[in-house]
Design brief:
Helix content: 25-40%
CATH class: Alpha Beta
Strand order of the largest sheet: 2-1-3-4-5-6
CATH superfamily: Alpha/Beta hydrolase fold, catalytic domain
Order of helices and strands: HHEHEHEHEHEEHHH
Low-confidence stretches: 241-245
Strand content: 5-15%
Structural class: alpha/beta
Shape: globular
Number of helices: 9
CATH architecture: 3-Layer(aba) Sandwich
Radius of gyration: 17 Å
Amino acid sequence: MLEVRAIAELGAFFSMAPLLRLAPRGDGHPVLVLPGLVASDVSTRPLRAFLIDRGYRAHGWKLGRNLGPRPGVEDAMRARLAELHERYQRKVSVIGWSLGGVYARELARLAPAQVRSVITLGSPFAGDPRASNARQIYESVSQRGSDDPHPWRAHMKEPPPVPATAIYSRSDGIVAWQGCLEREGPQTENIEVEGSHSGLGHNPVVLYAIADRLAQPEGGWRPFERVGLRRLIYPDPHRDARAAA
């Protein structure tokens, strides 16, 4: 029932459009946006429209509905990535929503020379594949079990070889948030937000964080800073450890 919030978050996206124009602008590099399970490029239109407004060349994956890692999907995504890299002669940032984030991390692993950075939105790459309320849908549309062997599974928890940002919500109504976290490393980070899983692609707080991450100069990646008003909007990622101490 928590996912009903996605409707309010979409309303907030439209009502806060003027304020979102204050988010950092980018350098015009290409961005590939991958949709979540059973979703298509239609679901990522608000996000891509925002990115275009911020100066990026934002593109959908053009593969219809995301029905899981079926045969041919990986090759088609690699071809789409290579196409954008060749067209703009620049590295591509890849944003993946839910299952799309799992794909994004694997694309970076397969073609690190073509990927500038990865941002995942509520993507369950680090936990038990069965810890999802979308498990039955996944098994139905992909025609494979949640815990079936897959070439990606052996290294899915390992960070990709490019800067990686995982955006997640503890009140996610679809996947367990603990499985959406990147391991700590020199070019990985986790940003917590308040919101639903289904609204991550148009939640204004998420969009601002995405704009901040993409605006960094290539080769000059630094972790997200919770300074000023950001402290009131983005929860402290270390609060659990401090409470335990």
